[in-house]
Write a structure and sequence with these properties.
The protein is mostly helical. 54% of the residues lie in helices and 9% in strands. The chain contains 4 helices and 2 strands, in the order αβαβαα. Strands 1-2 form a two-stranded parallel sheet.
Length: 67
């Protein structure tokens, strides 16, 4: 019930870029019918947290973009 309420709260936001990260969270959003309400759905929970911690940067992606 908590996951559903969080998804609904995010779905109700206007003019917001929303991201859900992590396989279990992405699966729950899909199962509850909220997947399309998010701007981006990522199955990489650990990578999502690392990106947030590094101001939107992921070392592996940065290397690829530099080439």
């Amino acid at each position: 019930e908590g996951t559903k309420k969080v998804c609904q709260s995010i779905a109700d936001l206007e003019n917001t870029f929303s991201v859900i990260g992590g396989g279990d969270s992405a699966a729950a959003a899909k199962q509850l019918g909220y997947k399309q309400k998010f701007s981006h759905v990522s199955t990489g929970g650990g990578a999502s947290l690392e990106m947030i911690e590094n101001n939107g940067s992921l070392p592996g992606i940065d290397i690829i973009q530099d080439k």
